[in-house]
User: Fold these one by one.
Assistant:
Number 1:
Amino acid sequence: MEFKQVMVVRRDLGMGTGKIAAQVAHAAVMAAERTKHRKPEWFETWFEGGQAKVVVKVQSLEELMQVRQRAEALSLPVVQVNDSGLTQIPAGTTTCIGIGPAPADLIDRVTSDLKLL
Amino acid sequence: MEFKQVMVVRRDLGMGTGKIAAQVAHAAVMAAERTKHRKPEWFETWFEGGQAKVVVKVQSLEELMQVRQRAEALSLPVVQVNDSGLTQIPAGTTTCIGIGPAPADLIDRVTSDLKLL
């Protein structure tokens, strides 16, 4: 079975490349840890098998929360990143979510309609 | 004690924002895992304390390898990301490294002269 982790980033915040990279890394580390605790076999298979990651985008907080709800409805491990707000955007702003790692066919039901960042 | 994780990215490869975010996320997850095994107390303190991350840039592979060597000389946990090459760049290209999490004053001895991405 194929596994992947997907990060979904808001593109309406005007974040620069370095800021986006840090937010996506936050989501990736936290989602990996959450999956490791909730679904250790998913984490291990993914980690040993190349750690596939996909980064996609949305245009609003509302759209991001819809993706989150769809992921949670499928019981996928999801984390939400709220920025500390030291640079570029107000503190507490929700910037992205991380989903999985999880079976690719399951995660595709949530994110396959989203465009690559 | 303050802890942080630093990712160092090559800017000479022409990678787009999404590609960079995925590479930085690879480095962050792998470096976090490595630190968790080698220095579990460093990982725990950092993970529970806000997971500070910094993303900086270099302009060549040579510069990246120099940073890596300086980090290893201080026995810091370091991982290197070699891209699978499915998009944008040739397979096996070294795109970035991840260092730590580690005590900020120690990691600053390696990366404080590098510019933010």
Note: The beta strands of chain A are 3-10, 53-58, 78-82, 94-103, 115-116.
Number 2:
Amino acid sequence: MSEQTKDKLIIFDTTLRDGEQSPGVTLNTEEKIEIARQLSRLGVNVLEAGFPVASPGDFNAVQRIAREVGPLMEGRTGEGRVNQEMVICGLARSVQHDIQTAYDAVKEAPRHRIHVFLATSDIHLEFKLKITREQCLQRIKDMVGFARSLCADIEFSPEDAGRSDHSFLCEALATAIKAGATTLNIPDTVGYNTPSEYGALIKHLRENTEGADSVVFSTHCHNDLGLATANTLAGISNGARQVEVTINGIGERAGNTSLEEVVMNIHTHPHSYPVQHTVNTRLFFSTSRMVEDLSGMAVQANKAIVGRNAFLHESGIHQDGVLKNKQTYEIIRPEDVGVTTGNLALGKHSGRHAFKTKLEDLGYGGPALSDAQFQAAFAKFKDLADSKKAGVTDGDMHALVADVRSSTLAGGSSAPPPAASEAADKRSSTSTDLPEDAHEAQAESALRFTLKHLQVFTGLGITPTATVTLHDAVRGADVTDVALANNGPIEATFSAIQRIIGVDIQLLNFNVAATSEGQDTLGKVAVRIARAAQEPEEGCLAPGGSVPKFTGLATNVDIITASASAYISAVNRMIGHDESDNRASHKDRKVDI
Amino acid sequence: MSEQTKDKLIIFDTTLRDGEQSPGVTLNTEEKIEIARQLSRLGVNVLEAGFPVASPGDFNAVQRIAREVGPLMEGRTGEGRVNQEMVICGLARSVQHDIQTAYDAVKEAPRHRIHVFLATSDIHLEFKLKITREQCLQRIKDMVGFARSLCADIEFSPEDAGRSDHSFLCEALATAIKAGATTLNIPDTVGYNTPSEYGALIKHLRENTEGADSVVFSTHCHNDLGLATANTLAGISNGARQVEVTINGIGERAGNTSLEEVVMNIHTHPHSYPVQHTVNTRLFFSTSRMVEDLSGMAVQANKAIVGRNAFLHESGIHQDGVLKNKQTYEIIRPEDVGVTTGNLALGKHSGRHAFKTKLEDLGYGGPALSDAQFQAAFAKFKDLADSKKAGVTDGDMHALVADVRSSTLAGGSSAPPPAASEAADKRSSTSTDLPEDAHEAQAESALRFTLKHLQVFTGLGITPTATVTLHDAVRGADVTDVALANNGPIEATFSAIQRIIGVDIQLLNFNVAATSEGQDTLGKVAVRIARAAQEPEEGCLAPGGSVPKFTGLATNVDIITASASAYISAVNRMIGHDESDNRASHKDRKVDI
């Protein structure tokens, strides 16, 4: 089969829905939009942007992605590219209100889809849904039909397909097709299928479902036994033409199928699979880094395709030999997935042009950074180049970009605040003296707090103390406070910041990594926080649950300064966070597909 | 096929040989022995302990593992266990000196094996070995024959089997069998086979090699496309009865096949594979943590089986449903792989018994810690319990164990040093004033330097300074020095320590992670160092190459104190490191199988 006549594989990315269900991950709206833009540039065909009914925050995120990212064509045109807008998809249970809400969230995208799911296994029908098989078929007919009355592109997923009776499953799928479904997605919900089992299931369903020829079959695999990629490929070999995947394979438990692994298998084995892809593989590494940074889910060095070591060939013979005699497969060159190998360090004399070229090489070209972000990154680069004798490495550059993105992404999206300097005071040690409008007063470019001064004393047998001065944009003044801690200088620093901002904060996660080798390497700090003692929330899918979480990233040669900056960045997001955003419990809106 | 009549799968672990080839990983002898002991308890059948001819250090490590770990039967007896000593294996090129050296290194183990390899692809024969096919066959005959004259258990690997002519490969394997090979290992060297290709290759070789019935076929897969586990399982389904694997899948590039993934596939799908295993899966998590800590190769949260999130089921329905209706497969319960779910925190009133029980639950029972290590861990635990209000979590416990192991493992194994206090001086800022015998003067329990005092001042716009006092066991005195730094308090602290020890050190890697949630979490610091400006080395496999590297780990609520402790731990290892140990270039002894 020639490449031209092959079916195009539909990449359905669920990083923002199933990936975001990873324990500890909660992306806010701005972060989701940032990732969605990158996935659009990458060439993703369908983006599952969220589960709109789960909360007003989810609805808002999906709606903004539909409006702002749905129409984008940057990076999507040309030979071998998708040449269409990205389809924006919203998830819905088989309930009219869910479906209507999902439609309302996605409808402004030029191309949009509703993804409806209902369990089809007897155990789910009996214990969870408390309906009979007949009622199940009726509900599929009614709800897929309702969805189709709103929108021409409808995906249906039989939840727990793996344990559903096969003939009933075929009946359920045929019902969905008759009611108007255009894509049928078959989840290996618990990640326990072998490739031969999963391939056989896809084949069986295609052969035994009435109307199967008129729809696209889709894979949805989990990696509990390390076989998600193999199962997905087995699905493709057996007729699936859509794959549900996430960047870095993030997702609940051991995660979902990795987008980059599936695509590179097809890319390197053009003769082994009956499909072609339209993804720009050169953006894999930078996309992986972005998702790693914003989700806080670190990628291990020995991860296939996007791990730091994936292309470190220690023995030269090996790679040479392969290149001399590439036969049945194409070897992956590092640059094919956006890993630059030259690793030519930039120095203090490198100008704006060299800096820009390097950013482009690393996958941050064109619209990846706004003008303001580019200027901020260049300023940070010059500071860094002055202090680093060995030059600024690719690792440092990735960290710089993450830092700039983090510090310029506030939580909310409302207009800049009115001047509120009358509220300024040198100290604010209670949580009640913030101006009323402070919570919604942050725009992207108007950060509430900035670090002006920091002084820390610590050691073995010494009580750590930190003195911090922040500029408060709302009060229009610098505020200084001091704190001590039992548990080291970072805690003292964070406590002093908390005293200044007057909000009780819970530190959920704290991580420091070096960006490259050597003593003057940058420390990259990631912190994740939430308000302590959040009030219970109402109006969501289910009561109770977790509070919104905020990530801050910063890089500095001084780990304590980096920690303070990261913490302040997270605080700015938390304070700027639209109160209506992301209010839903994270756990409550998890679904098992 | 009933479980009783199934073939037993032979687990050949190469964490210490191929795994150690991961970029940045260099395990010293004590670390290798520690891992070898754990792999023995786990039930590994064959342990590839190293490449003895590569360097005197490699030889010494393999020999000590053969002597000290080879005879161990702890954890290996009982129903469903291996009930035999672990086979200790040494790798050798097809050269008489290599084979003799490998044999000398492993021969003291009750059960031992020599693993001989030779390339069989035309490209390797022509460009690398510069021999004809006939010469290749002759060399296999001679060298496998020579190995067999020393030892009854011989493994042969055709390097670059994937690109070798199939009929010549069968001829080469038949030659190896005739010369006495008992195991034939088929590497997918570049990790680019699909499962169906690799399975077909194993099948073809078994069907077309003369004498194939009398030997064991073995898989050796790499994970470049995320398919190592699937390829290995395809090998088993097509007749392989040995699998070459590493803990956490570490190895060059994207790594080797994960031991834990292959075993858990067989464990959960007893009816899908024609083999049974004899591994104690309950030790997976603690073994994974040990390899992670000692190798410095972090495991991502969404890694199958051993990732931190692998068993975090956020939605209860899901797991319940599975447990109610387990049909064709067995679900993995977290405790099956050593993940404790209760996560009952220990508090300041917890006694020695509760502490010990918790350690056992976490997979550190019995001989996992020496008495001295247990006492040290308990003392650290009591200190920590005093300062942590929320109690000591499982994450903290794993970190404590890693810390104690790191701080009690010196590099060398020679006798304690003679008193050398006459060399003591308040300052030692050059590298020439160490006593002559200081380099080989460290025994396991006699650490050269201990941290007595630390005082750090830093901040934004402040030049960081650190004052450090170390006790020097060789000089028998406390030594204090101070340093400043351009790049933060950690650099200042490390510089002050360098001044005291008088050795120029290169910082290769620095990482901090929190062990659990919350502000009083432990910071776990890992540093990796090498001597700066190492002299070129002689007598190794090849000239040039990299210098030995040393890891130090420490945990403390204060990140700077933890950093100082980790650095000192690494320094103690470096200084105690037997000069003859690990002298070979790491890169030079890499082989592509």
Note: Chain B touches chain A through 116 residues (CB under 8 Å).
